[in-house]
Structure formats: structure tokens, C-alpha cells
Amino acid sequence: MTLTDSSRQVAPPALASDVTAVILAGGQGTRIRALFPDVPKPLIPVAGQPFLNWLTGYLAGAGLRSFVYSTGYKGSQIDDWCRDGGFPDCRRISVYEGQPLGTGGGLLNCLDDAADWLLVANGDGLCMTGIDALLAMRHEPGVDGGLIGVHVADTSPYGSLDSDEAGMLLRFREKQPGTGYVNSGIYLFRKSALEPLRRQEPSSLERDLIPEMLAAGRRLKVVRCAEAPFIDIGTPEAIARADDFVMTHLAHLRPRV
How far is CA 115 from CA 110, 137, 228, in A? Predict the structure, then answer.
């Protein structure tokens, strides 16, 4: 969803009926457990609402109406949240993992409930740029998916994305100093590209599934974004900033369903 002046009217987005948003919400949140011992991290209150409300509202504003939440730690609370009557125009279900499966395993565990394309996001973060361009990839011939990359002055804390002139992902680089694009944690995948990777054991999306897709000849494209409003509620410091972040971007986070 493109960020615009909230005083101007914005045409509603086209509904992405062939896309299911898979939200990875199974982490234990060990770094913030002391602050919220009885709540799974994606349901931590931010600006008076569970964080999942803001993330789901933003993606619904981009035209998504089908949501699957991959759950683990205290997953029954997210299951209850899915049935709370909010977002009446959206399908919301949770899929529980009986053992920790990692980001890759959690995604694969949701395939049976997904449409032809899957938009994947972490349940504790919100990157507010590039969604429209990412969703448009499903209309590009020969493209099996992609991810949003954000330009930063120093990639050493993160690792960076190595892509060719056409924007096709070549590999993930190890952490090293210098400018470049880093992974925002928001992906789009063709379901048929994920099906051959099904497994029962834990796996990582970044370290296992994506390298395996690239090795199999799948073409994943990087949406290169110069900058992006971003929040990750995985640390106490980030939670302290989260209310201000939401209030600053409230016009673009309001559920539009």
C-alpha cells in the first residue's frame, strides 16, 4: 500500500483473492517475556490494540482478505483472537505447530490452508512499504515470488541481499560493512514453488527454504525500497517506541474492511 497524504482520497485496492497472508506468529518472545509473561508476542497491546490488529489492518488495506496465523507459544490466545468478530470481511484462521518448526517449517505447515500465492510476514513486525509492488509480481511471467528489500547505510548488523541487474535474488550475503539492501521479512511465494519443500522437521525460511528454491531454479525478485517506516516489537526498547510509531502512521494502519 503506497503511503499518501491522508487528506487525499485513495482508491480502494483491488482484492487479492488468489493470495493468502501467512503470518508467522509462533515465536516465544524470550527477550520480552518478563514484560508480558502471559501474552504471545503478536498480541502484545500497542496503542490500545493487539499488535496483530495493526498488522492485519495494514495488509487488509492492501487488498488481502485471507489470513492464516502460524502459531506455537500460547497459540490458543491467537486462535481466540481469530474468532473475536473483528475484520468481518476477512477470513482469519490459526494453524498450530505441535513442536517449534522455525520460520520455514511454520510456513510449510500452513500450505494446506493457502491459496495459489502466499504473502508471508512476521507477526511481530510491520514494514510499511513495497506491498503493492510485491503483490504485482504474481502477474510477471516466470517469477515465483520475491521479497521486499530496504536500503540501509550499513548492512553489517543484518546481512544483505545479492541480486542481479533485473532485481532477481541471487543469494543472501553474510554480515559485512557497507551500504546495501537488507531483508524486510516480507515475502511472496507461488504455492507450487513451496510444495516440493514440504517436510516435518524444523527449518528456516532464509537459511533453508529460499536457498533450496534458488538452487532448484526458482526466480525470486527483490522489491528495492529506498526507505521504509518499520517497527519490530521483539525488544523492550522497540515496544517503548511502538505506540508512537502506530500513532504517527495511524492513517495508513486503520483497518479498511
Answer: 10, 15, 28
Q: Is 167 left (phi over 0), alpha (psi -120 to 50) or beta?
A: left
Own/partner pairs for 239-246, CB < 8 Å, 24+ apart? 239/32, 239/35, 239/44, 239/46, 242/46, 242/47, 242/51, 243/46, 243/47, 246/46, 246/47, 246/54
User: What CATH number is attached to the domain comprising 139?
Assistant: 3.90.550.10
Look at residue 10 and tell me whether its pLDDT is greater than 70. Answer: no
How many of the other CB atoms lie within 10 Å of CB of 184?
A: 25
Confidence grade of residue 30 (pLDDT, cut at 50, 70, 90): low
Domain extent for 52 = 19-147+185-220+231-253
Contact call for residues 188 and 117 (beta carbons, < 8 A): yes
In a domain, 159, yes or no: no
